Amino acid sequence: MKLRTAISIFLCCLLHNALAGENVINDQERILGGTKAREGEFPFIVSITTNGEHLCAGFIYNPRFIVTTVTCVQNLSPSQVSVVVGQLSLISTEQYERRYQVVSIIPHENYDANLGLNNLAVIETSSSMAFTAGHVDFICYNEDNTTFPEATVMGWGATQEGGLPSIDLLKASVTISAECVVYGSEEYQPNYMICAGSDTVSPCHYDEGSPLVQDNIVVGVASRNTGCKELFLPTLYTRLSSYYAWLNRNAGQQPPACSAT
């Protein structure tokens, strides 16, 4: 499966660049706007795949559920999806990497595709995920910290507009802002969304569902933006703290350790 993924990404990259009349981008260019994550740095991150290929991201909520976005999994049946934990590279198998089949996908019933509102979904795995401290683990969710607005987003998203997934898990620092003037008042609804961005980095294609983290607490999942061209504009994240009742009803409680956060 990893070999097929590597060949697929390589061939598609060659085709994409040949059609664009460009040279194949080097490694430094591939991580422009982000840096490679270290092993064990984000043990909660999950690659959501279809046909063995990375589609989008999510995070481990508890031993049986992954949190992501509706836009990540819409129009997919559970049999078409699997989730991979403990992974850094999409083309090499790591020691703690495990793949889990999916038995149910639960999108938010009031998702609004026009406004991007309620862009939240949970995925149930066929068996409990085995946790290994520092490598595969859950992360607690809570309100964002407005006093210290710095946050980190991570994922395997494309490293250029219209590109393919990054082979390596990348991370980037962004700043949460209460002002989000690039979006209209209907598009940005602060009670249900978080606006975060940077002048030098941006989530991109295949980053849907990527977690936004502050101080080892996940506060949002990447919902949408205007693209990842040279002029980076803020990304809207689904505000997880606004969906406590929905998450509890559809995915149950988080592990007891989260009660103290």
UniProtKB/TrEMBL annotation:
Single GO MF descriptor: serine-type endopeptidase activity
GO BP annotations, alphabetical order: proteolysis
Pfam families: Trypsin
Peptidase S1 domain segment(s): 31-252
InterPro entries in alphabetical order: Peptidase_S1_PA, Peptidase_S1_PA_chymotrypsin, Trypsin_dom
SUPFAM superfamilies, A to Z: Trypsin-like serine proteases (SSF50494)
Superkingdom, natural source: Eukaryota
Signal peptide segment: 1-20
Keywords: Disulfide bond, Signal
UniProt key word Disulfide bond: yes
Designated name of the protein: Peptidase S1 domain-containing protein
Taxonomic placement: Eukaryota, Metazoa, Ecdysozoa, Arthropoda, Crustacea
